[in-house]
């Protein structure tokens, strides 16, 4: 297993005093070829451990991916989780709530997609959007933010009783890198479909939105549900960091293959005659 060392992963722990003060382009002395090779090896280990998670059907993991437009939430899902046991994975992408979802409590749609025992759920955006995007989009009032923050804290404090381990990652990119990636989307038809008019407004408002997210990260960095701020200007480092954090969570579960008695013997199996094919 070749995850990144704890010192590197712990360097990504959110600092509530200055959540987004780190350099989103830092590289920890790694290069692209080295990181990609390390990720390929690590995915083999993750594949086995996620299948083991599914076989035991006891604990569950919740990977929360937040970040600005173009930070790579979809990219992490594709590059880190592709090829892993699909039975153990459940990815959900949360856009603006639809009419049915707005008819319920704001946490309703997230609670419905919490991971079942033995699975890893991935939230591409999460209930934290209720503290940022919902206010921008006129779906809540400023007075709603404190009760919503309390409800989110209560949900995350409930997760251990459900045997769910949260892993919250904020993918941090610079304004210049976001602009570069938006240009790429404009120029490439296979990426242009991702664009919306609001992306330009959000980019224009980059500093204000980053400041709001810093407030949210600081207020919701909890001992049982900490935030990791992932430097994401380099996709290859972003992917290896998230994969390594996921590997560390799986390590801490200290799993093994289920020790169950065999439901039948080799003699029972051997005693069944296979009829010739017709």
Automatic annotation (TrEMBL):
InterPro entries according to UniProt: P-loop_NTPase (IPR027417), Polyphosphate_phosphotransfera (IPR016898), PPK2-related (IPR022488)
Keywords, sorted A to Z: Kinase, Transferase
Domain Polyphosphate kinase-2-related positions: 30-252
Pfam families: PPK2 (PF03976)
GO molecular function, one term: polyphosphate kinase activity
Chain coiled-coil ranges: none
Family assignment from sequence similarity: Belongs to the polyphosphate kinase 2 (PPK2) family. Class I subfamily.
Annotated protein name in UniProt: Polyphosphate kinase-2-related domain-containing protein
């Amino acid at each position: 297993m070749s995850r990144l060392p704890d010192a590197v992963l712990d360097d990504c722990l959110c600092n509530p005093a200055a959540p987004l003060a780190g350099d989103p382009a830092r590289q920890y002395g790694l290069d692209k070829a080295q990181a990609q090779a390390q990720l390929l090896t690590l995915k083999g280990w993750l594949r086995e451990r996620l299948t083991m998670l599914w076989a035991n059907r006891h604990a569950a993991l919740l990977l929360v991916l937040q970040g600005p437009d173009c930070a790579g939430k979809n990219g992490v899902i594709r590059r880190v989780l592709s090829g892993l046991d699909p039975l153990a994975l459940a990815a959900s992408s949360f856009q603006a709530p639809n009419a049915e979802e707005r008819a319920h409590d704001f946490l309703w749609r997230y609670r419905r997609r919490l991971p079942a025992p033995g699975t890893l759920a991935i939230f591409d955006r999460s209930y934290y959007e209720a503290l940022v995007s919902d206010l921008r989009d006129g779906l809540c009032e400023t007075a709603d933010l404190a009760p919503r923050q309390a409800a989110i804290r209560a949900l995350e404090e409930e997760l251990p009783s459900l045997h769910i381990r949260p892993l919250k990652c904020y993918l941090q990119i610079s304004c210049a890198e976001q602009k570069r990636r938006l240009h790429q989307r404009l120029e490439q038809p296979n990426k242009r479909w991702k664009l919306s008019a609001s992306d330009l407004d959000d980019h224009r408002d980059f500093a204000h939105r980053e400041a709001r997210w810093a407030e949210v990260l600081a207020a919701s960095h909890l001992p049982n549900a900490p935030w990791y701020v992932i430097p994401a200007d380099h996709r290859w480092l972003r992917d290896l960091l998230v994969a390594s954090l996921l590997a560390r969570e799986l390590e801490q579960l200290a799993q093994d293959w289920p020790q169950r008695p065999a439901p039948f013997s080799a003699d029972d199996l051997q005693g069944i005659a296979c009829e010739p094919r017709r």
